[in-house]
Amino acid sequence: xxxxxxxxxxxxALWQANYVADILRKNGYEVDLVKITTKGDKILDVPLAKIxxxxxxxxxxxxxxxRDEIDIAVHSLKDVPTYFPEGLGLIAVSxxxxxxxxxxxxxxxxxxxxxxxxxxxxxxxxxxxxxKLLNNKIQTKDLRGNVDTRLRKLEEGQYDAIILAYAxxxxxxxxxxxxxVFSPEEMIPAVCQGFLGIEGRIDDKRVKEAVRVINCxxxxxRATAERSFLSTLEGGCQVPIAAYSELKGxxxxxxxxxxxxxxxxxxKDKISGKAEDAExxxxxxxxxxxxxxAREILREIYGKE
Length: 305
Hints:
By secondary structure, the protein is an alpha/beta fold. It has ten helices and 13 strands. It is 35% helix and 24% strand. Helix 9 packs parallel to helix 10. It is globular, with a radius of gyration of 19 Å. The relative contact order is 0.15. The model has no long low-confidence stretch (mean pLDDT 93).
């Protein structure tokens, strides 16, 4: 049986697709990679928050799935909206790579050393808001492009430091570039950062059976809680939102974060409960933050849209 994997063309996306392809081949499947360019790959000079956010990296791939040109799509799950087109869905979630954020700099060892006016490159509103809490002397400047492009811009001196997902750097063998990895207490990761999400046609039983070898039950529980949190907030890239879950035995803990665009009004809380109630826990945590004041922030941001 042949499985066609749809993937973006970046080095990291191809690493992720090949990682899944290798697992499938070891389990006796023939695999082809189908490279697809998404809108997010074409627009590199505008922050994601201004052009539509998460769906920018998946729409064209989902259209290929619906046209039966590919059998599965391999995504960084943090880039996948919490809703799917009719007929498509999440059919597997990989074991989680390290979900933390990484600090890279030529001149500084960590964020706390950075001097007044130092420039940190990131287009993530989530990171911008939390960086201000760690060092309010710095300023942030938008940074787009693939990992190589971002590293080049840092090395050329366009930025004093940049923040990238540690998972992507590890997958590309670039850990040596990292000066510091933020703990989840310092900087709460993006929802589902570090997971690979396998999307497919929900009625395609043969493919769903094939990707079971990739699926990690703990990952499904944690991803369900984090995506439920995001879905309840109806959040995309336009709002600084973060969530991180941990499974300890049968107990699931999840911490969530929402702030205004300036990182001045911040709402952060946590909740824990049974792992089997992952979706409910994510929703309850979101509702808790909404009641504490996050609802007003969302109203202001989406009211301006």
